[in-house]
Write a structure and sequence with these properties.
Helix content is about 80%, strand content about 0%. It is globular. By secondary structure, it is mainly alpha-helical.
Length: about 80
C-alpha cells in the first residue's frame, strides 16, 4: 500500500489526505505496509501512533506530502 500511495499523482495523494475518515484509513494502511516492508523501529512507533491518533498526523502528513510526495517515515 505504501508503494501504491507513493506512485499516485500528488493530486490523488492530497485528495486522499484531505478527507478526514479516508485520511485515517489511508494513513493506517500506508504506515503498516511501510513497516512490513522496512521493519524499522521508527516506522513501527509511528504506525502505532497513527493507529490511535491518526487525525492529528493526517494534517501534518498533508503538508509533508505537498512538499516531499510521501508520508513522514513511510517512504517505502
Amino acid at each position: 500500500m505504501a508503494s501504491w500511495f507513493n506512485r499516485q499523482s500528488r493530486l490523488i495523494q492530497i485528495i486522499l489526505l484531505l478527507i478526514p475518515g479516508i485520511n485515517w484509513i489511508v494513513e493506517i494502511l500506508v504506515r503498516w505496509s511501510a513497516f512490513l516492508k522496512t521493519k524499522s523501529l521508527i516506522t513501527l512507533v509511528v504506525a502505532i501512533l497513527v493507529t490511535f491518533f491518526g487525525l492529528a498526523f493526517g494534517w501534518l502528513d498533508l503538508v509533508w506530502c505537498l512538499l516531499f510526495k510521501h508520508l513522514i517515515f513511510a517512504n517505502a
